[in-house]
Amino acid sequence: MSENHWDEEKDEALDKTLEKAASKGAGKEWKLIEKMLNGLFVEQRRARRWGIFFKGLTFAYLIAILGIYFFNTSFTSDLPGKTGEHTAVIEIAGPISADDAANADSIIWSLRDAFKADKAKAVILRINSPGGSPVQSGYVYDEIKRLRALYPAKPVYAVIMDIGASGAYYIAAAADAIYADKASLVGSIGVVSGGFGFVDLMDKVGVERRAMTAGENKGFLDPFSPMKESDKVFWQSVLDTTHQQFIDQVKKGRGDKLVDEPDLFSGLVWTGEQAVRKGLIDGLGSASYVAREIVGQEKLIDYSSKMSPLDKVIEKFGVSFGKTLAAQMGLTSGYSLR
Question: Which residues contact 105 (CB under 8 A, 6 or more apart)?
Answer without folding.
Answer: 98
